Queue: 3 jobs
Job 1
Amino acid sequence: MSIILFNNCLDRILSKIYNICYENYKGLTKNPSWLLMRKIARFKIGRAMMIYFFKRSDKLDFNESNSFFPDVNVDEVVNYLKTDGLYLGICLPEDVVQEIVKFAYSTVCYGNRKTDMGFCYYHKEQAQTKLGQKFIIGSYFNTALLCPAIKKLQSDPKLLSIAAAFLDAQPIHQGNLMWWSFAGSTTYLEKSQAAQLFHYDVDDYRFLKFFFYLTDVDDRSGPHVCVRGSHNKKKWSHLWLRKRETDEDIINYYGFESLVKISGKAGFGFVEDPLCFHKGITPTHQDRLILQIEFARTDYGMQHDLRAASLVKCI
Ligand SMILES: O=C(O)CCC(=O)C(=O)O
C-alpha cells in the first residue's frame, strides 16, 4: 500500500518537473514572448493589466448570414462564457460532421501527437504492436489544409462573432486540434500527457476554445468535464503551482455541483473559457473523436497543428 502511494507521489512530482522543463525549453527556443505571457496570464491582475495596455479598438463586425450556426445567439453565448466559463449547444450540421469524420477515417493520425508515429485509425493495433508502444491519443496535423470543412469552420462568421465579443478584440485563429482519445486504461503519467487530469490552459491573456464531438459521447466514451465558474476563482496553489489537480481537490474546492460532464451525439459542440479547470475522462468503452478550434487575441504560433510534410512519418 505504502509503495503504491509512494509511486503515485513520485509520478506526480516527475510529471510536474517534466512539464515545467518542457514549457521553459519550448518557450525559450521557440517564442520567449509566449513564455512570458504564460508567467503573467495565470494571474487575474496580470491578464487585466495586459488587456488594458494592449487595448484593441478594431470594428468587430462579421456577416453572419453564411454561418453553419444560424440559430446560435452571440450575446447569450458570450454571457454564459463570462459567468460560467462555458456554453453548451453549438451543433454542427450533419453533413459537416460526416465530411470531417470521413476525413478522419481516411487520413493518417499520429500516436501521442508524435510526428514520426503516423498510422491509419483502422491499423492502430498493428502500429502499436510494431512500435511496442501504447497510444493514448491519435492526433491529426494540417487539418485546415487537408479538410475543407474544417477550413470553413475556422472562419465561420458566427464563431468569429462570439470570439470577437468575448475577446473584445479582433479574434486571431490560434489553431485547430483534432484527435482520437482511445478507449482503455491509463496511468497517471499517460492521463497527465493526454489532458485527462484537471488542468487549465494559459494560451493568451484572453482566449477561447470551441469543441465539437465527432463521435457519440456518453459517460463511458470520454466526456469532457468543465468546472463551471472556475475561470474566475482559483486558490493560491492553483495559481502558483499550476499542477494537474485531483478530482478530490477540485470537488472539495468548487463543489460537486460545479462539475459539468458533457455528453452529446456526434456534432454536439460547446465553447469554453479554458481558464476553467477541465479535462477529458479516459474513454473505457469507445474511442472518442473531437475537434477543437481556438481563438485568441494574439497568435504566438504555439498552438497550430501545422507540420511540414518532410517532418511527418508513418510507422
Ligand atoms: O480531451 C478533452 O476533452 C480535454 C481537452 C483539453 O483539456 C484541452 O484541449 O485543453
Note: The chain has twelve helices and eleven strands.
Job 2
Amino acid sequence: MHRRNLLKTAAAAAAASVIPMRQVWAEDVPTINLDGDSISLDKKDVHDFANSLNGIVLKPDSAGYDIARQIWNRYWDRKPALIARCTNVADVVSAVKFARGHNLLTAVRCGGHSMSGKGMCDGGLVIDLSYMNDVQIDVKNKTASVQGGAQLGDLDRKALPFGLGTTAGVVSHTGVGGLTLGGGMGRLQRRFGLAIDNVLGVELVTAEGKVVTANAKENPDLYWGVRGGGGNFGIVTKFLFRLHTMDPMVINFGFSFPMDVAKDALKLYFDFSTGADKDLFLLGGISMREDGTGGVSIGGNYFGPQRNVDRALQPLRDFGKAIRDSVFPIEYVKIQQVADDGFNAPGNRHYAKGGFLREVNDDLITTLIERIEPLASRRFSVGLLPMDGAPSKVGAKDTVWAHRDAAYNIDSSSKWAVNNSDVDEENVAWNRAYWKDIEPFTRGFYVNQLIDENQDQVNTNYGPNHARLVDVKNKYDPTNFFRLNANVRPTV
Ligand SMILES: Cc1cc2nc3c(=O)[nH]c(=O)nc-3n(C[C@H](O)[C@H](O)[C@H](O)COP(=O)(O)OP(=O)(O)OC[C@H]3O[C@@H](n4cnc5c(N)ncnc54)[C@H](O)[C@@H]3O)c2cc1C
C-alpha cells in the first residue's frame, strides 16, 4: 500500500477506535487568541467541546498529533494547541462556535498543500477537514458533490469511470478545498475553465457557525466570493461541481531539452503554446538539479483524437534537439498521479514565488535561464502554464479571479531536504533574489501561490474585485475570524 494511504488508513483506524471513547482533559490548555495573546482554555470547556464531536480533538501529547500537524511544506513546523479532526458538518459547526467563543486563532486544513502553510497554525486551533472526503457523482445531471476535505484524487477517481471530469490540479494529493477556493488551474482548464468556473454551489459554515448554501440563486454574493476569494468567508463543507463528458484515456507527452539549448527551447515553448491547438495542455519547465544538471521540458496532454497527435506535436519534433521524446496513451486518472512524487512529494522543505505573465519577450527568456544557479542542497524548478482558452473567456469581475487576461502563470520553486534547515535562509534568499528579476515581467499573482506578500500587495492583487470582496467579508466574517489566507480585511 502507498505510504500516504497507509498513514491515512492508520490514522482513520486510530480515529475510529477513539471516537466511541470519552476524551478526557486533565489540564487547562495553553493557546493563542486572534490578537496573538497567550490564553488558557479551561479543561472543562475543552472536555465538553471534544466530547461534542463525532471526530476527535488532538493535543500535543495525543497519539497521532505529530502526524496530524504535518503539512506538505515542511519548511513550516507548526504546533497548534488543538487539532479538531471533524467528520461531519455538525463537527465543523461545533469547532467554529468553540473557536469563536474563545476568540481562538484558527486555521482550516484540507489537503495541507498551502505553500505558506496556512492550513496549520502555531498555538491555535486547527479545524482539520481531511476525514471529510466523500465524493458523490450524479451521472444524469453531470455533477459531483465533494466534501470540503477531499483530495483531487478522490474526485478524479470517482468521476472518470463514468467518462466525466472537471478541472482540478496536477498533483492528486492536493486538497479540493484550498485549490478550488483560490481558483484551481489544471490539465483540463483550456477546455473547461478553472475549477471555480465549474463550481455550481457550496455548502458553507459561516463565522457565526451557521450552515448556508450559496449558488447562483441563494446567497449569490457569497457564491461569487468563494470562487477565488479563498477561505475568507467560511468553511466549505461541500462543493457542487459541474462535470464534463471526457474520454478517460488521454495522450501524455514529454519532451526534454538540454541546458545548452535552453533559451531556444524556452522560446519554442512560448511560440508553440501561444494559440496552440485547443486540445493541447502544455506545461513548460526549467529544472536545475542538485548536481548541476538541468534543462527545459515541454510536456502535457492531448485531448483530441489520437490520430491527430503527431500532427499537433510536430513543431516540437521539428526543433530537432529533444533528448527525450515520449508520447503514449494513458488513463487520465493515472496521469493525474504521475507528478505526485519527486519534486511534489510531501515532506520536503520548499519556497516558491508565483505570478502572471502578460507578455513574453527575449529579455524574460534570457533572465529565466541565465539567473539560475545550481546549489548542491537545492533542487530548483520554474513552471509555466498557459492561461488562454476557457479561463480567458470569463469576465474579470464574474468571479474573484481578476487575472483573466494573463498569458501564463509562472512559478519559481526551490526544494530541499526536510532535515536540512541549515540552508533555509540561503535557499529562501536565493529564490527571492531570482524572483526579484522575474517579477518585473509579471503582474499580479495566484492567491494560492501566496507566500510572503504583504497586505497591500494582497489587496492590489484582488484588483477590481477588492471592494466587493470587502462587502462580502463585512457581511459574512466581520471580525475576520477566517484570517489565515490571502486575507480580505473587513472594514466594520
Ligand atoms: C504539490 C502541489 C501541487 C499543486 N498543484 C496545483 C495545481 O495544479 N493547480 C493549482 O491551481 N494549484 C496547485 N497548487 C497550489 C494549491 O492550489 C494550493 O497550495 C492550495 O492552497 C492547496 O489546497 P489544500 O486544501 O491542499 O491546502 P490547505 O493547506 O489544506 O488549505 C489552504 C487554505 O485553503 C483554505 N481552505 C482549504 N479547504 C477549505 C475549505 N474546505 N473551506 C474553507 N477554506 C478552506 C484555508 O484557508 C487553508 O488555509 C499546488 C500545490 C502543491 C503543494
Note: The pocket of flavin-adenine dinucleotide is lined by residues 72, 107-115, 118-119, 129, 148, 169-171, 174-175, 177-179, 181-186, 230-231, 235-236, 344, 448, 484-485 (CB under 6 Å).
Job 3
Amino acid sequence: MATDRRKFLKQATQLGALSILPFSGFAKNNTPEIDFSSFDFTKINTDDEQFWKMLRLQFPLHTEKIYLNNGTMGPSPYPVIEAVNQKMLQVDTTGEYGGWEESRKTIAKFVNATEDEICLTHNVTEGINIIAQGLELKKGDEILLTNHEHVGGALPWLHRAKVQDLKVDYFVIGKTADQTMANLKSKITKKTKVIAVPHIVCTIGQIQPIKEIVELAKKQNIELFVDGAHGMGMLNLDLHDLGCDYYATCCHKWLCGPKGTGFLYVKKEALDKLQARYVGAGSDTGWSVIEPPTPVLKGYATTAHRFDYGTQNASIWAGVNAAIKFFDTITMAVVEERVKYLSTYLQNELLKLKNDNIELLTSTEPKSRGGVTAFKLKNMDFTKLQTEATNAGFRVRAVAENNVNCIRISTHIYNSPEEINKFVKFVEEMAMK
Ligand SMILES: Cc1ncc(COP(=O)(O)O)c(C=O)c1O
C-alpha cells in the first residue's frame, strides 16, 4: 500500500467518510472535507474494499435496499446534488442567466472531443433524433439496426423510415465481437446507408466493437451512428480515438449526473452532413426579420451548437460539471476497472453455482464485458423473478425488449461484492424453486 494512500485511509477512517468535493449542505456533519491535493488516485486498487466503502458514503442512495439498476438511472453523489442546489439558489437569488456553456467545455475535455463538437441535450433519445432526422436519406435507402435496441434507439429510425418510406433491417449481436462483425457484414447491401449501433447494448450489456465497425462503415461509405447511452461514466471514453462521426449519450446513467442531461457528439467534419430540424438562439450565424432585402436566416452555427438552442437549466449543468469533477478525481481509468471488476465478479459467482437453470446471457469475452450482466432462469419467468427480487429488496431491471426476456443487473462504483454476494444467494434460491 502506498504511503500516501495509507495516510489517506487512516485520515478518512478517522473522519468517518470521504468527500471528493467540498460541499456545504447535505450530511455536512458526517462527511467532512478532506484535502485531496496530495492524494494519488491512480494508486487505488480495484479491489480495495476499504476505499470503495468510503466512496459509497458519498451517495445518499438508501442502504435498506440494494440498487442494481444503474443502467436505467444513476443515483447522484452528494457533490452533484449540492452543485445543483447551489446553482439554483444562486440563479434564483441573483436573477443571473446562462452559465451552461461551461459544460460544453467540461464534457469535451472529459471525452477527448472539442467544444465545437458537443451539442447539449436532455437525454440520449434527443441526440439520436438529431441524427436520425438530420441525415440526408432518400426513398429506398436502408438503415441497419441491431436486435438489441432500446426503444429510444429504435423509434427515431423507425419514425424516419415510416415518414420517408425507407427500409429498416437489423443484424444480430453475437456472443463474441467477431460473430457480431460477421453478422453485420452479412446484412450490408448496396442500399445500406446507415448503421446505427449501441456502444453497449441496453439488454445484455455487451460492449460492441465500435472501432472495427467504424472501419467497416468508412470502407463502404456508410454513415455510422453510435448510441452511447451506457458509455459516459462507465468507460474511459476517448471519442476522437473511437473514430465515429456521431455519438449520443447522457449524463444521468453511469456518470450519475442530474437527470435530464446528455450530449451529442458530432465530429467536426461530419457537421454539414446533417440538416438541423429544430433551431433557435445559438443555432445561427445571424438572422433578421426586419432588415431588407428580406427576412433571412443567414446561416447555421459552424459548431454542434447549431442543434441546441434557447434557455437551459443552469443548475443541472452545474451538476454535470460536478459529476465530471467527481469521476475525474477518481479517474475514469479506475472507475472503468472497478465497474468491470464488479460485473466480472457477479458473472463468475453466477457461473460458479453450476446450476443448469441459470442462463448467463452476457458475453464473458473480456473485451465485450462492461458493467452490465444479464441472465434468465429456466424455471421462472423473468417478470416473476423481477417481482421476487423486488420483494427481497433488490432493484433490478426486467428486459422485455426484443423478446430477450431476462433480468439485467448493472453494478456501479457504489455497489460492493457484499451486495453482489447477497444477490447471488437470492438467485441460487430462486433457481432451486
Ligand atoms: C441503449 C439505450 N439507448 C437509448 C436510451 C434512452 O435514453 P434516454 O432515456 O436518456 O433518452 C437508453 C436508456 O436506457 C438505452 O439504454
Note: Residues 1-35 have pLDDT under 50 and may be disordered.
